[in-house]
């Protein structure tokens, strides 16, 4: 580049413009090599020099800064969360159809609306509904300038940098495309890549993702785009937002253009002439669903003619001209090889079915939950039985049916153990407050049971608790085996043990000295960071029975500090009625909870742990005061159904911060019900009771407004 030797101070404006253009394309090329191909073709120092020069020129000629300026991109990590992007055209959701009747109703509504008679053919497009996250890509003059999540449909998050790292997201479009092009589609993770990523997560001491969709979401919404770059995300283009010119007058024509412009479009896209053909396509894809290599949860049908689409328009947030035809949960048949009994942190014995490996909808499954002893009885499942396993959306695979007719011989009924498999202590069903026997059988060994103690440690460091990166299930098992860890306090003394007995670490890690040093440095940093958890997370981390995330938050709000909470419970243990009443008076805290706290604190070991943690410098942080002037302050809010754009925990935390009380069930007292996708009985009940209900989008609007 001939100008580069010229000092920035003496560049003419024409030279500057030309060089900025060259630099933008050169840096973009290096970015593709680095982020997309994992194959950088320039040293870091030279790359930095290019960016610095670009920046220096821009500083001298601010008016010449380009729309695709490298200084706005790559590696920029916003300090707090992502920026917001207002969608030029809202991003909508779809109505659902579950059977042929629903499809016929859809077709009839359209005919009525457009005044078309039976004889008129309507062409529909038909394509898989990808189970991922939608994203919008904005191109100006052929250059990718902004990428956003769907957010609430009106305003999304700026994930431009993250999207740039996807191979399916072209950074430039061919000549001749309209000036403004917004491509919309789905970011997802293929089954194969999901399995690899989860293996890596486990190795690194991180929790594996529950399913490919969660993995895609977790990977895309990373503040550091370099992490996204390492994750194998893909993108299918299926619709558009703002377009300065329409290159076609049909849906199918648009998809053909997207394909030509370098986007990946779905191979199973078809144009079909009637409901029967749509249903045939649906059946065909359903049969091939597990072979596609990625999760889909139905088919999407759209009217092909765009003039008809515009005439039909929208009802609430979904187009009248499109519909999602859902698939049922995925199932497979396999053999039950064994039943493992896992001991949880509260001693609950959970039977886990060990299955002959089977792919359920493309994802390998070798374990499924059997819930508890009663469930085994109900299913009457016996060793070596053939069983039906189901995997649906976010849930853990389950056994839904035993194929009795395939049973060989007369296998014995399964005998649920009477003793804990880990420590041998007696296991029994507790009697619940209502006098009924609890379905769960529990080990009575308490902390002398190594399985319970280990599970408590795993819970303590888990994502919703102290969230210590680098200390996952695998590491806890290893550190336990080498006597390095027994209680949560030991976690904060690990660095001393590393100095005292470095050889142990080499045995446990299987790494060489250099790698070990790196990962230990990271681990100790993460542990140091965990010394200042939010008080609610800390209380949840303690693993007190009945104290889930919600109760922990209530307690944290009421008692403000760890010492305040500890002293109140101790005073209650000493028999001070006033303290007991104070605790029981917190909305959402019942007698069972009070009992549970008493039991926890009556165990000296538990108090030792709390004091020990305070002594090693763990100082939980008080929660911010709830806001009292929001549209939902003082109201009782219930969340139900699947929220697509916020986890349940996030939604609860947000609502509580805004001064609402979040409850798990609908009653006359409920003020607002937020209904996500596939909301069921709670939504029905709320409607019967005349309770105000909000869609997820409406909730997000409120949440974003304060
Ligand atoms: S079209 C106005 N096509 O499903 C219509 N959506 O439930 C916009 N989705 O938010 C959507 N695959 O995230 C369309 N082939 C497909 C899709 C698809 C997945 C998602 C999308 C949308 C959601 C609605």
From TrEMBL:
UniProt keyword Metal-binding, yes or no: yes
InterPro entries, alphabetized: BRCT_dom (IPR001357), BRCT_dom_sf (IPR036420), DisA/LigA_HHH (IPR041663), DNA_ligase (IPR001679), DNA_ligase_AS (IPR018239), DNAligase_adenylation (IPR013839), DNAligase_N (IPR013840), NA-bd_OB-fold (IPR012340)
Catalytic activity, as annotated: NAD(+) + (deoxyribonucleotide)n-3'-hydroxyl + 5'-phospho-(deoxyribonucleotide)m = (deoxyribonucleotide)n+m + AMP + beta-nicotinamide D-nucleotide
Keyword presence, Hydrolase: yes
Binding positions for Zn(2+) per the UniProt entry: 420, 423, 449
Limits of the BRCT domain: 627-700
Cofactor or coenzyme needed: Mg(2+); Mn(2+)
SUPFAM superfamilies tied to this protein: BRCT domain, DNA ligase/mRNA capping enzyme, catalytic domain, Nucleic acid-binding proteins, RuvA domain 2-like
One cellular-component annotation, GO: cytosol
PROSITE patterns reported in the protein's UniProt record: BRCT, DNA_LIGASE_N1
Enzyme active site: 129
UniProt-recorded Gene Ontology molecular function terms: DNA ligase (NAD+) activity; metal ion binding; peptidase activity
GO biological process: DNA repair; DNA replication; proteolysis
HAMAP family: DNA_ligase_A (MF_01588)
Function summary: DNA ligase that catalyzes the formation of phosphodiester linkages between 5'-phosphoryl and 3'-hydroxyl groups in double-stranded DNA using NAD as a coenzyme and as the energy source for the reaction. It is essential for DNA replication and repair of damaged DNA.
Name of the protein described by the UniProt record: DNA ligase
Species of origin: Candidatus Micropelagius thuwalensis
């Amino acid at each position: 580049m001939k100008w580069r030797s010229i000092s920035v101070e003496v560049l003419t404006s024409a030279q500057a413009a030309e060089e900025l253009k060259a630099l933008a394309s050169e840096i973009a090329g290096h970015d593709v090599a680095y982020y997309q191909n994992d194959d950088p073709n320039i040293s870091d120092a030279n790359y930095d020099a290019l960016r610095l020069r670009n920046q220096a020129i821009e500083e001298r000629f601010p008016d010449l800064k380009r729309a695709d300026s490298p200084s706005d991109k790559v590696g920029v990590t916003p300090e707090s969360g992502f920026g917001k992007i207002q969608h030029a055209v809202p991003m909508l959701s779809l109505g659902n159809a579950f059977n042929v009747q629903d499809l016929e109703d859809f077709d009839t509504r359209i005919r009525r609306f457009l005044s078309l008679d039976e004889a008129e053919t309507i062409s529909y497009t038909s394509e898989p509904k990808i189970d991922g996250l939608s994203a919008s890509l904005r191109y100006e003059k052929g250059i990718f300038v902004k990428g956003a999540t769907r957010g609430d449909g009106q305003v999304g998050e700026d994930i431009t940098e993250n999207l740039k790292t996807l191979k399916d997201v072209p950074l430039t479009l061919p000549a001749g495309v309209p000036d403004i092009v917004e491509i919309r589609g789905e970011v997802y993770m293929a089954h194969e890549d999901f399995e690899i990523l989860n293996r890596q997560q486990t190795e690194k001491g991180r929790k594996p993702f529950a399913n490919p969709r969660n993995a895609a979401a977790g990977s895309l919404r990373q503040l550091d785009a370099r992490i996204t770059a390492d994750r194998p995300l893909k993108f299918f283009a299926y619709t558009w937002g703002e377009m300065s010119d329409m290159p076609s007058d049909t849906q199918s024509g648009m998809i053909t253009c997207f394909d030509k412009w370098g986007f990946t479009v779905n191979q199973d896209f078809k144009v079909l002439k009637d409901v029967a053909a749509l249903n045939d396509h649906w059946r065909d894809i359903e049969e091939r669903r597990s072979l596609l290599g990625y999760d889909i949860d139905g088919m999407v049908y759209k009217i092909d003619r765009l003039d008809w689409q515009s005439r039909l328009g929208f009802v609430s947030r979904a187009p009248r001209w499109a519909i999602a035809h859902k698939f049922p949960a995925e199932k497979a048949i396999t053999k039950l090889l064994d039943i493992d009994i896992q001991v949880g942190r509260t001693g609950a014995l959970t039977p886990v079915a060990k299955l002959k490996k089977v792919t359920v909808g493309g994802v390998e499954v070798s374990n499924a939950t059997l819930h508890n002893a009663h469930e085994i009885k109900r299913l009457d499942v016996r060793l070596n039985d053939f069983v039906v396993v189901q995997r649906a959306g976010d849930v853990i695979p389950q056994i839904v049916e035993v194929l009795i007719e395939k049973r060989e011989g007369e296998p014995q009924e399964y005998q649920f153990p009477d003793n804990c498999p880990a420590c041998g202590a007696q296991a029994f069903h507790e009697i619940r407050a209502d006098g009924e026997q609890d379905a769960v059988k529990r080990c009575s060994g308490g902390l002398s049971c190594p399985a319970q103690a280990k599970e408590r440690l795993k819970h303590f460091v888990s994502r919703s608790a102290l969230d210590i990166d680098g200390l996952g299930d695998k590491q806890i098992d290893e550190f336990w085996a080498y006597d390095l860890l027994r209680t949560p306090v030991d976690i904060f003394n690990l660095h001393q043990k590393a100095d005292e007995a470095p050889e142990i670490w080499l045995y446990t890690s299987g790494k060489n000295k250099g790698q070990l040093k790196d990962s230990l440095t990271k681990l100790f940093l993460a542990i140091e960071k965990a010394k200042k958890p939010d008080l609610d997370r800390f209380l949840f981390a303690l693993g007190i029975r009945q104290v889930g995330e919600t109760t922990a938050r209530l307690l944290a709000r009421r008692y403000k500090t760890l010492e305040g909470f500890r002293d109140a419970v101790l005073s209650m243990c000493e028999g001070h009625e006033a303290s007991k009443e104070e605790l029981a008076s917190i909305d959402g805290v019942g007698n069972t909870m009070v009992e549970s706290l008493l039991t926890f604190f009556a165990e000296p070991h538990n108090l030792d742990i709390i004091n020990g943690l305070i002594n090693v410098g763990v100082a939980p942080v008080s929660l911010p005061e709830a806001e009292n002037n929001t549209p939902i302050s003082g109201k009782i809010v219930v969340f139900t159904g699947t929220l697509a754009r916020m986890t349940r925990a996030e939604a609860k935390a947000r609502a509580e911060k805004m001064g609402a009380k979040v409850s798990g069930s609908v009653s006359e007292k409920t003020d607002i019900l937020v209904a996500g996708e596939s909301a069921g009985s709670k939504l029905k009940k709320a409607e019967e009771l005349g309770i105000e209900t909000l869609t997820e989008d409406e909730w997000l609007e409120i949440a974003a407004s304060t």
